[in-house]
Structures
1.
Amino acid sequence: MNKDEIVVENRDMDLGSPDMRRELEEYSAAKLRKAEKREEEYLNRPGLTDKILDGAVKVKALARRAKNAVLAKKHQSENQH
């Protein structure tokens, strides 16, 4: 646990002064904004979407090739009999 991290186990307890409650709420809101910003930066990285789409196209192509290979082998074995 970080030394700056605050853990509240009982949310119904009196947190002290209204200033303390406000500080805790601001801290929680800032932490949430920071997490949302990290997520947005990750999702908006240049090329990330392209890499995902390229991967999907490659998987689809491999699946098609495998299917065609199985069908060709099946067709070949049927012609031999």
2.
Amino acid sequence: EVRRRSDTVVVLTINDVDRRSAGVVRMTPRAASGKPKFLDSGGSMVAKPKLKGIDGRAPPGVEPAA
């Protein structure tokens, strides 16, 4: 018997009461700058953490590779 990999995506739902305690973050439409903005479950703006060194730019004092 050959088993095939399931391509079904499982989506977990959380009711509104549990959403606030779970800290669910949802993404708003992109801003004019093209950067996504995030809202927490209460609707306030949450800063998106920027990971240093993986944004495609060389760190200060280092020349980019050719």
3.
Amino acid sequence: MSQDIYNQEYLKRLQLADQQATCLILRSESLLVIRTRLHSFWRFMDLPIEVITEVLCNVTPFELLSLSHTCKFLQEMIMRRTAEYVWLTAERNSATYPSYPWADISKPHFAGLLFMMLCTACGNHTANPLDPFLLVRLCSKCCSTEQVAHVFVSPKLTFI
């Protein structure tokens, strides 16, 4: 009985949202775009977690990373350790995604290194490529300050 009441209240909220969006159609075109997207987003957030997870399993790692920056709810959902399955299926959806041989960094961290053009040290935008051995992306300024030439490293450590 209480489930029926909940469903009726949910349907009333959806109908009210549709009526508000319809009223905005009559007012102005620019408000329509903002409001209808807002209502569509909240309808998406009302979906069960299983459905949202299934939707997230059909995107690429770049799209997952982009979605994680849209709102706090999706960020918490996508960046959890329990979302490993979502990242694995996203990797399979991308034909050009490189293999993931490292166990010491998480899959979201690896995707961030690949796709976000930010310096690992200072956080500024950089066009420099990712260093595949150090797993860092450094800007020109940080390259000179953060990297150490192998000449200065003790010979005892060079075999590591």
4.
Amino acid sequence: MTINPSKTINMLKKITFLAILAFMSFSCQTDNEFDQLQQNNFDFTVLTKDLTGLSSRNSTTACYSTPLIAGQNYDAGRIDVEIVNESGTDYVYITYITNNEWIIKLTHLYAGDRDGIPETKKGNPKPGVFEKRMDYEANVISDFEVEYKIPASAFETCFAIAAHAELAKIDDKGNEIQRETGWGQGDQFEGDSWAMLFDFCKTDCPGYNDDATK
């Protein structure tokens, strides 16, 4: 069988051309899919508007407040708890507020029955899985303020709150100079860590009637 060199060259040119087209098409598709992946998974907007309509969670309306302790020894801010009625529905707001020397890098919140807090066998809390047990997410207001909004009906009259945070201390130029774990001050867990939790009762808020919501 005689092979025609001219036909072979033309065939190779066609194959090469088609391969280039396929590669270009795949590259465009890959770029588009990557852009979509970024948009779906990495792009977010920091909310700066207070959802309750109040000027700020940083106010005098909280019916309970406890210090936010960083690294066991630093007063980094506070945890505020309050109940706000919105369109006839009561919501519990649990807000992390730091002072101007600390910023909030990450928060984990548990609110509910004490027996439901995820813990290790040694009695230390597992903050990384707090939200996996609960149906709520954080609303980031700024580097200094993060709030959780939860329907008051989700809780018994009194319940436990374990407010964990990862905090960074900053200098007067805004540079991070120190990282610490933070907890809302309260009772220590039974384990060997310094993690803490505190109790809150909805009836501590003036004007709130738990029976009226049932």
